[in-house]
């Protein structure tokens, strides 16, 4: 498979290089030089999830990894389901939260961990990452117990929910967690400083495992196929999918699935008040504003880092721009949507509720709609309980870790202290 840097087309890399490097020169994103297309989509849709996902991944990365290797990666990464839950006669929720950390980021995180394990071939690697919640937990669980890979996760002390924190600080073994006396931006700055420090970068073989890694997108394409496979032939004929969006990785994967032949008529890019993309789709002007905090905090992004990939899909003529429409759902309507869903018997959380609201506004008579359920409601328990006025119970993975002791250490917001700590742990 060949991928090119979207900022410098002369930089062409293999899948393995793109996975290891993350970003290209000038912070450019890697994108496949050519997107494949299935000839017989019905045959693909008829396959079971894991088998079908092996087909999809093999189509994308070509013969760079053997089919046996791809099968192992997919089997280990996709060890849980992505069921469609019926909400009304013609609306479904695609539940992507049945993995170990209860959010869709488990799909991409686990797939990336398995790819990196295969590609690095036993060389030691240190993953260093900063988190404000979901990503850290997914990365920690995905790499937990993998030989030769150590993970160091920085998070802002006392600034994320107890439950979120326990999901990654209680693992131990090769997962090292550090509570920084600062905010999320301080944590990100420490990570950047470490990547600029040759001693640490080379001495500890740093890798960022961040959200723009091409392996994550590759994984996410698979669950769009899984969603459509669960619909009847008739429902597949006029289908709209609504995607709750922050960095727009999820929507990018959906569009690639369409390019590969998946029958989706239209995508709704649903955002909270951080609505750079909906405004851009309406006016043609890219005008990011300051990021505002919302109930759907995993989507509090005003300069989405995957957008250049969507531009590339449109510019290269794979899909027409009219296939995507944007919609912004404000805080009040996020809560209204959560209550409406509860009345329909479906308990949801703010991110999925935004996608539901935007879907309902777009859906026409005779169409079928799917919105992506990106996180389990218990992950946003306080918000959900407040908005719905009813208690919700903890699913097993959260209940299991809630009573355990966190193994994190405290450090000041000081690079020298972090460096000393990392060498003591791993040097
Ligand atoms: C990360 C996240 C999103 C946003 O996904 P993008 O791919 O960044 O657009 C939506 N919902 C939840 C719960 C998330 O964790």
From TrEMBL:
It catalyses: O-phospho-L-homoserine + H2O = L-threonine + phosphate. Transmembrane segments: none annotated. Residues 94-364 form the Tryptophan synthase beta chain-like PALP domain. GO terms for molecular function: threonine synthase activity. It holds the Pfam family PALP. Its cofactor is pyridoxal 5'-phosphate. Pathway: Amino-acid biosynthesis; L-threonine biosynthesis; L-threonine from L-aspartate: step 5/5. InterPro entries: Ser/Thr_deHydtase_PyrdxlP-BS (IPR000634), Thr_synth_N (IPR029144), Thr_synth_N_sf (IPR037158), Thr_synthase-like (IPR004450), Threonine_Synthase (IPR051166), TrpB-like_PALP (IPR001926), TrpB-like_PALP_sf (IPR036052). This is Threonine synthase.
